Amino acid sequence: MTENAIAERIARQTLARRGPDYASEVRRLLDAGLEVMRKCGTASRPRVTDIVAAAGLSNDAFYRHFASKDALVAAILEDGTERLVGYLDHQLAKETTPEGKVRRWVEGVLSQATDDDVASATLAVLWNAGGVGDGLVSGRPSASAALAGVVREPLAELGSAHPDLDATLVAHAVVGALSDHLWQRSRPTSEEIAHIVEFCVSAAAATAAGRPS
């Protein structure tokens, strides 16, 4: 066994022992970053020192996992998208009809604007990422593709001839509406939600009939 092989084996063992601690550190930094940004809103951008203080960690711990605050913000956006997708999957599982699933999907995405704490936190994180045009509400591939993936099957069940494309277009439309509400600090009405659901269902039906949606 070479010296490098021994060093690599010991390093792997050390990382394996520290893995749970490191995962806990990352979770604390993600949660602290989200909370500090929510409190600052769009008035100021917190410093790394503010975030590590809220997490009860050190700068060394922060830079052990993230190269910069931008990297943390990107991770918070990804974490939020994964949570939203999990929530949407859970909501759609309650429905038996494709129309009901589409309705649950629309309601779930727009729910990010109906809870004041969630809406303010989402807007603040996006603003820290560079503006409300970034991340979830811009329809960036990492976020919109995940959201579109949830609604693809219901659209296919409705007869969509192009479920992948239709799901992508629907995702862009709904996250666009979400973006407007977040920026305007407003909430979607039941009438608006019903109209968006009808739009999504009609789009699938239109492509099924061979008409442009």
Strand content: under 5%
Distinct helical segment count: 9
- Count the domains: 2
Residue-averaged pLDDT: 86
Relative helix content: over 70%
| Straight-line N-to-C gap | 65 Å
Which class do the helix and strand fractions yield?
A: mainly alpha
Using only CA atoms, what is the Rg? 21 Å
Shape field: globular
Biggest beta-sheet profile: none
Q: In sequence order, what are the helices and strands, one letter per element? A: HHHHHHHHH
Uncertain residue ranges: 131-135
In total, the number of strands is 0
Question: How would you characterize this protein structure?
Answer:
With 213 residues, the chain is an all-alpha fold. α4 packs antiparallel against α5. The protein has nine helices and no strands. The longest helix is centred in the N-terminal third of the chain and has 38 residues, at 3-40. 35% of the residues are buried. It has two domains: 1-66, Arc Repressor Mutant, subunit A, CATH 1.10.10; 75-213. Helix content is 76%, strand content 0%.
